[in-house]
Amino acid sequence: MCPPPYGYKKDPDNPRKWIIDDEAAEIVRRIYRLCIEGKGIETTARLLQEDGILTPAQYWASKGIRKGGKNSQETLCKWCKSTVTKILTLREYTGTLINFKTYSRSFKNKRRLINPEENRAVFENHHEAIIDPATWEQVQKIREGTKRRQPKNAEKNMFAGLLYCADCGHKLHFNVNHPNSAIEYFNCSNYRGNRGTCNETHYIRADSLEQVVLLELNRMVSYLKNHEDEFAELLAQKTTKDYERESRNRRQHLQELIARNQEVDRLFEHIYEDNVAGKLSDDRFMKMSQRYDEEQQQLKKDIAELQRQCDKEDDRAFCKEQFLRAVRKFMEMRTLTPVILHELVERIDVYHIQGKGKDRTQRIVIHYNFIGTLDLPEVEEYPENVVLDSRQGMAIEYLVGKAG
């Protein structure tokens, strides 16, 4: 076994077993919470330093644990961005052990190379988890959407990374109007006016978006309070239908990849026999075998990923409970925070504005975590058309429509 990462320690009674180091594990949980709250890597590192939290290397040194490598930090609490990034991406915090992440070409060459995922050894439920799998996956999605530098002198918007162009599928980028910095908005990152290929901007104001999403969440809460049994039944039907469709498509694709992988094996044997019999030249054999080998390496990688998804398919009841827990948390607070938003919403598809003047309309579709889109029946407290006061001189008429 490799040495335990920050947050774990070896069991005194069994050196081959990892147990949670409570003091360090709490810092790991805090780093994940800060990410969900919308804090960036640099901000997280700065907050840990300001609070006097020892870096992992200094923490291990304070406990008398010897670790390899050089200590290049001038201060005991100066966290590097790379350290925070590694903690946020380490799957071991979910209780999974992954061995053989790197390899060397030979004993003469000490340089370590990244090992393909299909060649690694993965052991699920190997040790107690510090971060639950749902939270870990949520953080990975958040980090995928935060690679672009945010506008100067502006805080990161909580919708950043959640908005997608309904036409081209690219993310919407957060921007601040100049010189009127009070206007914050999103538009398609792939717009052709910015050397992209999308024909429309898909512009949407951040304040308007927040009001619409907040109203939709309030409609959901109202329906849950007044029709709890009907809401549970609606959720059960939704998760069942989506689960079965996605599972069926995923397993069908997996079988197709496995069949192609077996076919490539047969093709390779065929060209080998032709080469031995003199029907195929050595040069031609090398080129064809290299092509088949590259294809098979990619097939093995895709098969391993699909197999992993099939093996860890979430239980439908668990998905429902996870979503209901997040809805009830919002019900208690009734305010939209980055944490609540990312626990409830997976993505939001934004369509381009249609019409002109007072007749302008814009469609958005909310995809919730675990269940996808959700069409609610009419809610008494919230009729199908509501006028929202967005800002001075501007009102939004909110119209309820079908997600499909």
UniProtKB/TrEMBL annotation:
- Going by the entry's taxonomy, the superkingdom of the source organism is recorded as Bacteria
Entry annotated with the keyword Coiled coil? yes
Return the InterPro entries for the record: DNA_bind_recomb_sf (IPR038109), DNA_bind_recombinase_dom (IPR011109), DUF4368 (IPR025378), SSR_resolvase (IPR050639), Zn_ribbon_recom_dom (IPR025827)
| Stretches assigned to coiled coil | 289-316
Q: Where is the Recombinase domain?
A: 5-149
Keywords noted in UniProt: Coiled coil
Would I find Mitochondrion among this entry's keywords? no
What's the protein called, per UniProt? Recombinase domain-containing protein
Species of origin reads Acutalibacter muris
